[in-house]
Design brief:
Layout (H helix, E strand, L loop, with lengths): L2 H33 L3 H37 L6 E3 L1 H19 L6 E6 L6 E3 L1 H25 L7 E9 L2 E8 L29 H13 L2 E7 L3 E9 L2
Parallel strand pairs: 2-4
Antiparallel strand pairs: 1-3, 4-5, 5-7, 6-7
């Protein structure tokens, strides 16, 4: 994903939000016209609403096509799998994500706890792709505890934990936070493309979708989610050990 794409998608997302807001206002006007028996005006407003919805649908399909093409391109690259030390990879990207956030918000602090299994075997992966998955999960965890900190008493202590371990023939990477958590109503949606709980301009809705694609489709693994709203979330990446 390029910075240009993210900039384009952010502006597109804002454009869609504007179109939706205008449509809602037009519906209010149409309702008032119908109550006043101004059917001609209501029909004109209905045409405007249809145009807005067609615009949203067009942009949505366009964005979906771009992402699918980018995913297909990524699968066709010449990147090679390498035997990788997951502990080193997880630690490097954890520090990268945290320092990146601190560069944007120097007021933010959180405790970082790691539980790395030193007896893990190396795994044959596309290290850069798994690194992207990790940094996305880390960023989400930091964002979650940051949000909770904004509305919690001073006694709240934000914590992000990262754990690696071997369970059977699967290597596990767990990213856990004590942030705002994920409501049950949206747990099934968060891996879908373009679904985001973040405000407009702060999230693209692509991170977890691409993470799922990399782990599940690209590496034959799994991503599990456990969360309780208001108490935090835990994402578990499972990678097969060949």
């Amino acid at each position: 994903m390029t910075d240009e794409f993210f900039g384009w998608w952010t502006s597109l997302d804002e454009s869609q939000q504007d179109a939706l807001q205008v449509s809602i206002e037009l519906l209010d006007e149409m309702e008032a016209d119908l109550k006043s028996d101004k059917k001609g005006d209501a029909i004109e407003i209905a045409a405007d609403i249809r145009q807005n919805l067609e615009k949203i649908n067009h942009h949505g399909k366009r964005a979906d096509g771009i992402v699918k093409n980018m995913l297909q391109h990524s699968r066709n690259t010449n990147a090679e799998r390498q035997q990788t030390n997951i502990n080193v990879l997880a630690d490097e990207y954890l520090r990268l994500a945290y320092h990146g956030l601190r560069a944007k918000n120097k007021e933010f602090n959180t405790d970082i706890v790691t539980h790395f299994d030193n007896d893990l075997p190396q795994v044959n992966i596309l290290a850069q792709d798994i690194g992207r998955v990790l940094i996305n999960l880390y960023n989400n965890a930091f964002y979650s505890v940051q949000r909770k900190q904004e509305t919690s008493p001073a006694t709240y202590k934000p914590i992000v934990e990262v754990t690696t371990l071997l369970k059977g023939d699967m290597l596990q990477i767990k990213v856990k936070d004590n942030g705002v958590g994920i409501p049950d109503a949206i747990k099934q949606k968060i891996m879908q493309p373009f679904f985001t709980t973040k405000p407009t301009g702060e999230g693209t809705g692509l991170g977890l979708s691409l993470s799922y694609d990399i782990v599940v489709k690209g590496h034959g693994g799994h991503i599990d989610i456990e969360s309780k709203e208001g108490e935090g979330a835990e994402f578990t990446i499972l990678l097969p050990v060949e």
